[in-house]
# Entry
Amino acid sequence: MDLNFVSKTFLFRGCSEDDVRKIAKYLGFKTVRYKKGTTIYKEGTTVTNIGLVLSGSVQIEHNDFWGNKSVLDIVYPGGIFAEAYACIPNEPLMINVVANANCEILFISIPNLFIPCTVCKIQNRLIQNLMIISAQKNLQLSKRSLHTSPKTIRGRLLSYFSQLISEQGSSKVVSPFNRQQLADYLNLDRSALSKELGKMKNDGLIEYNKNAFHLQTVRKGTLSGQKY
Amino acid sequence: MDLNFVSKTFLFRGCSEDDVRKIAKYLGFKTVRYKKGTTIYKEGTTVTNIGLVLSGSVQIEHNDFWGNKSVLDIVYPGGIFAEAYACIPNEPLMINVVANANCEILFISIPNLFIPCTVCKIQNRLIQNLMIISAQKNLQLSKRSLHTSPKTIRGRLLSYFSQLISEQGSSKVVSPFNRQQLADYLNLDRSALSKELGKMKNDGLIEYNKNAFHLQTVRKGTLSGQKY
DNA sequence: AAAAGTATGTGGTTATAACCACGAAAATGA
DNA sequence: TCATTTTCGTGGTTATAACCACATACTTTT
# Structure
């Protein structure tokens, strides 16, 4: 196991290589290699370990009752998966985790993590990092949910832009997404999104150039009442 | 502070009244009363305490750049709020927390919680409970996001039903929502939802009576390829 | 049991977003 | 720099969901 790499991941932030070594011994880390295409975690089962991707990548997939598959996420080296499931005792997986390429996964037992201990300090650091990861995912999901709740394209865009404005502290904002990614994020069709942006420009609501947008500050009265 | 009540909340699950007393002394709990309408946490500020509602209720609100308000959640006694923000250092609130009625809030410092300690065991229990709460919220949000991503009403319904089937282990399922709530959950108009349910019954896909639905198991080929 | 209130289904209309196709523009890379 | 690939905007068409209005069924209250 590449201690140096592990100590630099978000999950082990604040841990030295030596810390990692110690806690690895205490918790009993396990590293497993998977061939591309192998199912690592299977829907319906329960797990107690989170997976930390050391190399390669894994894909989080969902299959509905009728067998329709959708890819929810791809996790790259340094990222973790199944943390929500590993933290809730006996919560069956809603998703499959599949090796997207030949990969190497470090498994970390969550129940062990919560047993107080001789290496309490490092352990606590780990728990706190895990907590932060979970909380961040929460905020991400909440934001997206907020932005996809308006029924119109314009409404979703304005909600998203509002977010960017507040994050970037200016009505000139830069979006990290290209058109297709933004459409996916807001659950829209790309071409429809492009069209609506054009209309908004026409209506004098925004100016833009590629992913840089300049929002016009409209008087509140103009929009209030509209459910956009 | 009503120790008995506190010890029975989800956050303190597994803690005796005495445990609560001990950890309260150690962490320094603070209880505050608010009059209805008071802002408890204000958008843009940063917080380090989670709030546990002891009595009354609080409302989680969001205001966009143009001042349009939306209510994201209401938290009742025993529930907590702002946990995601309190766990991430310096994360500015995206939301306001407002007293929905005269209420009493118990504030618990998260940074203190992560400092190892004399009452390590109880503390760890608390952290673990918090972790579970966060993880559960994650799954909730992920599920909803999954079910609102299809573009058609039918698609969203099938995705939702698929979930119920897997949770309830049968193709006869009961939904906890009435029509309006289901429409809100799936981001749909109620009347449009009702109509689509009617069509699906007509198409022989489902039978239903109020919130009890019976899904027909259609051959995979019938639906596959459709993006529903 | 009547009355008031709430939830649900349905018809009709309209706005709107998805979808398809294609050309232009921009980015990539050889 | 030229060729190839990817991204983006736009026109046109169609399916579809929102919206509004109302009647019926079901609940709750008194």
Notes: Chain A is about 40% helix and 25% strand. Confidence is low (pLDDT under 50) at residues 219-228 of chain A.
